[in-house]
Specification:
Radius of gyration of chain A: 21 Å
Shape of chain B: flat
Radius of gyration of chain B: 23 Å
Number of domains of chain A: 1
Distance between the termini of chain B: 38 Å
Structural class of chain A: alpha/beta
Oligomer: heterodimer
Number of helices of chain B: 3
Strand content of chain B: under 5%
CATH topology of chain A: Amidase signature (AS) enzymes
Shape of chain A: globular
Order of helices and strands of chain A: HHEHEHEEEHEHEEHEHHEHHHHEHHEEH
Strand order of the largest sheet of chain A: 1-3-2-6-8-7-12-13-11-9-10
Distance between the termini of chain A: 27 Å
Largest interface: A-B, 73 and 51 residues
Helix content of chain B: 25-40%
CATH superfamily of chain A: Amidase signature (AS) domain
Helix content of chain A: 25-40%
Order of helices and strands of chain B: HHHEE
Number of strands of chain B: 2
Strand order of the largest sheet of chain B: 1-2
Number of strands of chain A: 13
CATH class of chain A: Alpha Beta
Largest sheet of chain B: 2 strands, antiparallel
Structural class of chain B: mainly alpha
CATH architecture of chain A: Alpha-Beta Complex
């Protein structure tokens, strides 16, 4: 019996090398868990039918002494990341039947390392949402409390890791979609510096915001997955090579900034705030210095995000027209085909496309999209100023714990739950959510640490020294 | 003020068929969302590109327009994804 609960990537790797169990044994253990739990939790949209073959290939590599850290590690992949020859659909009816014609760059790197793909995980349709309730294939339930959501949009990936239905997972983060479900499920979620992981093969939502990121049980595992998938890529025109940073930052010299006024504004749950303050006390005990930072433009962050993201989405999703791929519904004429086919988008996706169309339309462009770009510049400048004074900024990952399935029916109220996560995407900086304890009723909470552009390694080092 | 008529117009621009009931619901939702995001209008400054282009500001990286892949090697893989196909063409309804 493999102890999946306490298993990490490194432990599994060591066990493979020492021949304690094989990659096939490990994949079998996860498949067994998936078999037992997936019906209730709805984590996987598809479990691949060749998992055992993949694991056997990994075992060959291990036997040959060529094992890398991720060789034979069973991973869950969000349903918006392409794996050649496999179904992928962004949890949308508009991609029903679509088979990926190529590998995402992140996938290619994982394949080269010999990782095993267990299946594709549920998500909010086109990554729009924070609960997976917008999936065309039903909600993913939270493994900690099945009456609640797993968060989103990478809810399936986070629940997979939390419920031991995968050792690690890939998600994507456009406004918090890796970090928030990680916090709701009690696992680690990392959003890298924009451009460090190639977007090639990630189904586009908001291209200036989208990042692929790992969801794992430990910070070290997140670092291992990130180190594998990162790197400049000629297939992504905004990809960058991460600059080398001095990674040794002892916490006793660490200055952590807290935007107090922002954190304590209306809407934050009292248990979340209490837990956040306790986390800060814990950080102080390790020698870190906690200081207040004033980031005045943060008040515009969410509004800025909910203009830029729908604007980019409305442009990106124009490609789904029933001509090149996906199903086509027949209308009266050519343009009628578009209207019928694009009605396959779910309600939230339709809402955002229409919102994006509005803010980009000639009469309103300056008042909305133009002003959102100005706000983005102001927020970037404010963060640059803050990072002159502090090394890291700390905020809660989410203002609430996981909510009840069906509790939030009004779209704006769901958007407001993204208040603490969208900023890292707007500015393009790295951020990590680490488990910070539980509410009285046992629901996980997350602490979010944010670093300047390129200081991804610093977040890992700080988190590893603290947690 | 966004009304159902404006939603119909936007849906037409976005090429999405929406039902009558949905236009009313969408008008209400979009109105509420716009009411919130209007907050950005308090930000100083316009749409000009800001100064201070730092080393980490994302930029588009272009490659030289050279060394194309062999013509046609991806054609079949991509065309096979189209809902309707006629030989080497994607088939659509008559336009003219």
């Amino acid at each position: 019996m493999i102890d999946l609960k306490n298993l990490t990537v490194k432990k599994a790797h060591t066990a493979f090398i020492k021949n304690e169990y094989s990659a096939l044994d490990l994949s079998e253990a996860y498949l067994k868990n998936i078999e037992a739990k997936n019906k209730e939790l709805n984590v996987y949209l598809e479990v691949f039918d060749d998992v055992r073959e993949q694991a056997k290939e990994a075992d060959k590599k291990i036997k040959a002494g060529k094992a890398e850290m991720l060789t034979g590690i069973p991973l869950a992949i969000k349903d918006n990341i392409l794996i050649q020859g496999r179904r992928v659909g962004a949890a949308s009816k508009i991609l029903d039947g679509y088979v990926a014609p190529y590998d995402a760059t992140a996938i290619k790197k994982l394949k080269d390392a010999g990782a095993v793909f267990l299946g594709r995980t549920n998500m909010d349709e086109f990554a729009m949402g924070g609960s997976t309730e917008n999936s065309a294939y039903g909600v993913t339930k939270n493994p900690n409390d099945t009456s609640r959501v797993s968060g989103g949009s990478s809810g399936g990936s986070a629940a997979a890791v939390a419920a031991d239905m995968a050792l690690a997972a890939l998600g994507s983060d456009t406004g918090g979609s890796v970090r928030q479900p990680a916090s709701f499920c009690g696992v680690v979620g990392f959003k890298p510096t924009y451009g460090t992981v190639s977007r090639s093969g990630l189904i586009a939502f908001g291209s200036s915001l989208d990042c692929i990121g790992p969801i794992t049980k430990t910070v070290e595992d997140a670092e291992i997955v990130f180190d594998c998938i990162r790197g400049e890529d000629s297939l992504d025109s905004t990809s960058v090579e991460l600059p080398k940073t001095n990674s040794k930052h002892p916490t006793k010299e660490l200055k952590i900034g807290v935007p107090r006024g922002f954190v304590e504004a209306d809407g934050i749950d009292s248990e979340v705030l209490k837990n956040f303050n306790e986390s800060l006390e814990g950080l102080k005990k390790t020698g870190a210095k906690i200081v207040d930072v004033d980031v005045p433009s943060l008040q515009y962050a969410l509004a800025c995000y909910y203009i830029i993201a729908p604007a980019e989405a409305s442009a990106n999703l124009a490609r789904f027209d029933g001509v090149k791929y996906g199903p086509r519904l027949s209308g009266e004429n050519g343009i009628g085909d578009y209207f019928k086919t694009r009605a396959l988008f779910g309600p939230e996706v339709r809402r955002r496309i229409i919102l994006g169309t509005y803010v980009l339309s000639a009469g309103y462009y300056d008042a909305y999209y133009g002003k959102a770009l100005a706000a983005r510049s102001a927020i970037c400048a404010d963060f640059a100023r803050s990072f002159e004074k502090v090394d890291i900024i700390a905020v809660p990952t989410s203002p609430t714990h996981a909510w009840k399935i069906g509790e939030k029916s009004d779209p704006l109220s769901v958007y407001l739950a993204d208040i603490f996560t969208v900023t890292a995407n707007i500015v393009g900086i790295p951020a990590i959510s680490v488990p910070s304890g539980k509410t009285k009723s046992g629901l996980p909470l997350g602490l979010q640490l944010i670093a300047p552009v390129g200081y991804d390694q610093k977040l890992f080092d700080v988190c590893k020294s603290i947690f | 003020m966004i009304d159902a008529k404006e939603i119909e117009h936007l849906a037409e621009l976005a090429r999405i068929e929406v039902g009558k009931e949905e236009t009313v619901a969408l008008a209400k939702d979009i109105e509420a969302i716009l009411g919130y995001v209007t907050l950005v209008q308090k930000v100083a400054g316009g749409t000009e590109v800001p100064d201070g282009h730092t080393e980490h500001t994302p930029v588009n990286v272009m490659r030289e327009d050279v060394n194309p892949h062999e013509s046609g090697i991806y054609t079949d893989a991509l065309l096979s994804l189209a809902p309707e196909r006629d030989g080497q063409y994607v088939k659509v309804k008559k336009i003219l």
